[in-house]
Amino acid sequence: MTMQTPALTAAWNAWIDAERLARALGDDDLVVIDARFELADPEAGEAGWRQARIPGARYAHLDRDLSAPAESGAEAALHGQGRHPWPRAAEFAVRLRAWGVTPAHRVAVYDAAGGALAAARLWFLLRALGHEKVAVLDGGWQHWLAQGLPIDREPPAPTASAAAPYPGDFDAGLLLDAPQVQAHLRAGGLLVDVRAPERFRGDVEPIDRVGGHVPGAVNRPFADNLRDGLSKPPAELAAEFEGLLDGRAPRELVAMCGSGVSACHHLLAMAHAGLPGARLFTGSWSGWIEAPSRPIAIGA
């Protein structure tokens, strides 16, 4: 076991740089999770993990492990579950057990999209469950490779865990469905859509059946959290988000995207900036449009 120093154990709760994670490999209290995923090819991420990964990394699949099965019917449409429904706590706890994660563990998660796909989603799943010691690898898989840090190309070994299912439940106050978002907007709350501007405006819509945005939402793309593939400094992010909040508390910001995945990148960036507490519209745009009666805005 690698001996830990205070510098290695402090503030393991937002982004973590590659060198720091490399020093921690082998610690008994560390679990690394590979969350690479491609919307266009949902099995490509797991295939990549099988070929090469950070040593010891388990694999988390966005559809199977970090989302619930999609439901249908009027009740599902009312709440706006979207393409990646938020999982039930009991089912997610079973996945955490399979990965060997307990409340005592530090968790490091990475993807190949700067954290903006499944890595930030897994980070927020754990934070909403009350797990504090979870961090996203800054720069992701590409930066790890570029730094020449260790990788494992051997076939992944089966993961066996004697741990009990992770205890606890999600903090429901952090998760909003479509009716709650409507109430939030009526009360003057801030809804921030992290999709690219052309999708927000409705110029293009490559995934969902209709384009546009929720009336009253404002646009700040998740890419604005990054520079050259790495997270912006905390002070810079704090200034940008404080300008967006315009005097509101961080909890008054609700983030959305296409399906409640990349929106988590804003929640991660705000935590990195010392502004934790923002919330998530879990169904996001794909959930909003499940009910045809909900209004749609086009343009800037």
TrEMBL record:
<keyword id="KW-0808">Transferase</keyword>
<dbReference type="InterPro" id="IPR036873">
    <property type="entry name" value="Rhodanese-like_dom_sf"/>
</dbReference>
<feature type="domain" description="Rhodanese">
    <location>
        <begin position="26"/>
        <end position="153"/>
    </location>
</feature>
<dbReference type="GO" id="GO:0004792">
    <property type="term" value="F:thiosulfate-cyanide sulfurtransferase activity"/>
</dbReference>
<dbReference type="Pfam" id="PF00581">
    <property type="entry name" value="Rhodanese"/>
</dbReference>
<feature type="domain" description="Rhodanese">
    <location>
        <begin position="185"/>
        <end position="297"/>
    </location>
</feature>
<keyword id="KW-0677">Repeat</keyword>
<protein>
    <submittedName>
        <fullName>Sulfurtransferase</fullName>
    </submittedName>
</protein>
<dbReference type="InterPro" id="IPR045078">
    <property type="entry name" value="TST/MPST-like"/>
</dbReference>
<dbReference type="InterPro" id="IPR001763">
    <property type="entry name" value="Rhodanese-like_dom"/>
</dbReference>
